Amino acid sequence: MASAFIALGCAHSLVAQDDFVRNFDTTAEGPWSDVEGTTLSVPLVPDGAVAVDGTPTESEYGGFEGVEVVPNINGWIQNFPGDRTWNDAADSSFTFWLAHDSTYLYVGVDVKDDVPNSDNTNLEFWKDDALEFVVDALNNRYDNNTDNSNEAYGGHCYVNLEGRFSEWDDTGGFIARNRWSSFVNWTYGMTGEIFAQGRTVVGGWQVEVRFAKTLFEDPVAGNRLENGYVMGFNIGMDDDDQRGSEGATGSGERQRDLEVQYWWANRSRLIGWNEGSAQNYTAEQIANGETEDDFPRRIDPAGRLAHGGTGEIVLAGPENGFEITEILLTEGGPERTVTLTWNSLPDMTYLIEAADVLDQGAFEFTGVPVASQGLETTTTISAPVGDRNQFYRIVEAD
Question: What domains can be seen in the chain, in order of their start residue?
Fold first, then answer.
């Protein structure tokens, strides 16, 4: 009797969870639509801190606190396929981390998955165990479909559990379709603009993804992914438990390989808001929310792939701000030198100014401008001989 009771209890739990994912209200508000909850600060880390080896850790992601996404708690659930199924967090759930350095945006993901599987082609990774990404590079919040908008910078893509990229032809070594950062001649691989590494682990799989910032930087718009830049970002999960009929290794118990798809964010968006309608408003009107009177807001399945449905990430600057972090005086011989080190930003130029007294108007440029060396810059200049005081400051060149 005890065994029969336990079996009945498990069956009841499975049915209840299936009912939940099948009856989920795709228009409802929840954690996925909360603006504050779907806005994340992305720490700036030293170049090379993230290894991209498929083993994400909180420390290499600059202390970013991992965000857990579970379908029946905070994940927005897609209303496809009709017989979608999900048991519990061990069946499918994930935690993700974000970081950036001077060149790349990194995403690390730890997935709980009782049946890791990928047996479809790259262009059909949505049927497999895979991550989905949507990037609104200019944060314009348009009501669009990134599957067919052929984004110039950003867009919609997938990375499967092995770290393979949906938009790349692995055999030929070329871009398979031109819908992801289509204005960038990117490549996939260890030295490319996109690279990912995945591995299966006990109870699931892990993936780390590296995106070059140039994939999201529009030279015409002049947006730079640094020091407080805000960008639309969404991450979703596809779960395939190898019971479908579409992939090469499915058992055929179900028609579809995909068992459930769910997303971290699906905010309410302005329906009909697009590039054309935006031209009828000034930047000030948009910032003041005057569009709210002209475009209704809604949450629905289309929002998961729209700019307007994404969450937002804020790319943090140097932890200590813009400051001189080290001064080293070298004496001996006929000349004294001082070596200055400061927090810097890529692609900037800096001027070293000096003064004998600590007065704003006393500082004068010391000579040659210094080009940024990345997140930290060091230069050595001549220092006055004798007992004179000398004060230094670093300024950004215009």
Answer: 2-315 (2.60.40.1190), 324-396 (2.60.40)
pLDDT tens digits, residue range 21-73? Answer: 999 999 999 999 999 999 999 999 989 999 999 999 999 999 999 999 999 89
- AA letter at 383: A
> What is the 3-class SS of 273-321, one letter each residue?
CCHHHHCCCCHHHHHCCHHHHCCCEECCHHHHHCHHHCEEEEECCCCCC
Structural tokens at position 152: 């110039």
Query: Dihedral of CA 275/79/37/147: which sign?
Result: negative
Would you state the torsion angle of the CA atoms of residues 229, 167, 257, 116, taken in this order, to the nearest 10 degrees? -70
Q: Which two tokens stand for residue 124?
A: 């059909």
Measured CA to CA in angstroms, residue 132 lies from 12, 140, 200, 239, 321 at distances of 31, 20, 18, 11, 33
pLDDT of residue 319: 67
Give the span between the Cα atoms of 33 and 139, in whole angstroms. Answer: 16
For residue 109 the two structure tokens come to 């993901």
From CA 350, how far away is CA 158, in angstroms rounded? Answer: 40
Q: Give the pLDDT score at 12.
A: 34
CB atoms within 10 A of CB 51: 15
Query: Comparing C-alpha atoms, which of 28, 33, 119, 127 is closest to residue 84?
Result: 127
Rounded to an integer, what is the distance from CA 135 to the centroid of its chain? Answer: 8
Q: How far apart are CA 28 and CA 197, in angstroms?
A: 35
Distance CA 56, CA 33 (A): 27
User: pLDDT category, 344, cuts 50, 70, 90?
Assistant: confident
The CB density around residue 8, as the number of other CB atoms within 10 Å, is 10
Give this prediction's pTM.
Answer: 0.81
pLDDT in tens, 287-321: 888 999 999 999 999 999 999 999 999 999 876 56
Determine how β-strand 258-263 pairs with β-strand 174-175: unpaired
Cβ pair 69, 37 in contact under 8 A: no
Report the first-to-last Cα separation within the chain, whole angstroms.
81
The yes-or-no verdict on residue 193 having pLDDT over 50 is yes
211, 176 Cβ separation under 8 angstroms: no
Question: What pLDDT was estimated at residue 382?
Answer: 87
